[in-house]
Design brief:
The chain contains 12 helices and 11 strands. By secondary structure, the chain is α/β, with parallel strands linked by helices. The chain folds into 2 domains: 6-101 and 288-306, Rossmann fold (3-Layer(aba) Sandwich), CATH 3.40.50.720; 103-279, NAD(P)-binding Rossmann-like Domain (Rossmann fold), CATH 3.40.50.720. A 6-stranded parallel sheet has the order 7-6-8-9-10-11, with helices on both faces. The chain is elongated. The protein starts with 5 loop residues before the first strand and ends in a 6-residue tail after the last helix.
Length: 312
């Protein structure tokens, strides 16, 4: 009987999820979180042709050198920020991601954060729990009537956000490095121009440290302004966090809603005393339904590459 193909996976959570999902189709292997990853790769890396990974995993020259037979990488999600894409391309390794698959989930969450921040849901709940209602009404929140929305990055996620905004915030513009023929919303020539124009700025750009680190800098933050809301569902390093925190503290930026941080996990103490901020622990794309869908999609793509019939 032929040996099963071995498919590399890092991180306990993914190993434990994907082993039963793969069943008898192929063998999911990889170091546990408490093991020395490079030592494991040196001992077991040869012969592995495929990997299932996530964008924040480190894929540099040293890791790739330990996998001389690697030919295929399937990335769970849209981000590929931990990957040396130039080196991967130089070696002729085929790489795919599943950003389109859960773009709707991330967009739903981005909209939820925007609505919760703009209508001050957290503050309103605390007002009630602190028993302040007896003394009068909670201060009013910001209205969405007449608001203008900007989207940085009109890929799968940005496009899904725009479609969700359109029915009740129709004034939408966007910026990205390349034009998107056929989309109904205008593209601005620069990100700072977009930020000056809008009240709410969603950040959904393709994130990579060499290309988009601190894309949202002091100039962009100040252009968005004292009544502006920044919603980031891309990667934490895309925003200059120190400038963001300073701007929130002194009122140069109105609000921020962040699902991603630099680094992760973020230190809660970093946010002590920071006003008008809504924080969630990088969960925008994670729902029970999307996790199952991603697993099925990933297993199918690996089987396709390896020439395995799933019903065999």
């Amino acid at each position: 009987m032929a040996e099963k193909n071995r498919v590399l996976v890092f991180r306990n959570m993914m190993l434990d999820r994907l082993k039963p999902a793969a069943g008898d189709l192929f063998e999911v292997v990889g170091p546990r979180d408490n093991e020395d990853k490079m030592a494991w790769l040196k001992e077991h890396g040869r012969g592995i042709e495929a990997t299932i990974c996530i964008g924040i995993d480190t894929w540099d020259k040293a890791v790739l050198d330990s996998l001389p037979d690697l030919k295929f990488m399937e990335v769970l999600g849209a981000g590929m920020d931990g990957m040396d894409l130039e080196e991967i391309a130089r070696r002729g390794i085929h790489i795919e991601n599943s950003g389109e698959l859960h773009a709707g989930e991330v967009a739903d969450f981005a909209m939820t954060m925007m609505l919760a921040a703009r209508r001050d849901l957290v503050r309103s709940q605390q007002f009630l729990l602190d028993d302040k209602w007896k003394g009068g009404w909670c201060p009013p929140s910001r209205s969405l009537v007449g608001a203008k929305v900007g989207i940085a990055g009109l890929g799968h996620i940005g496009l899904a956000i725009a479609k969700r905004c359109a029915p009740f915030i129709p004034d939408i513009a966007w910026w990205g490095p390349r034009d998107k023929p056929g989309v109904p919303w205008p593209r601005r020539d620069s990100l700072v121009e977009l930020a000056r124009e809008v009240d709410i700025l969603f950040v959904a750009v393709f994130a990579h440290p060499k290309m988009t680190r601190h894309l949202i800098d002091k100039e962009i933050i100040e252009a968005l302004g004292a009544d502006g809301l920044l919603v980031n569902v891309s990667r934490g390093f895309v925003v200059d966090e120190l400038e963001l925190i300073a701007a929130l503290k002194d009122g140069r930026l109105g609000q921020a809603a962040l699902d991603v941080f630099d680094p992760e996990p973020t230190d809660p103490k970093r946010w002590d005393g920071v006003p008008n901020v809504l924080l969630t622990p990088h969960i925008a794309g994670a729902t029970r339904g999307s996790n199952v869908q991603l697993e099925r999609h990933t297993i199918a793509k690996v089987c396709e590459f390896l020439g395995i019939k799933e019903d065999a």
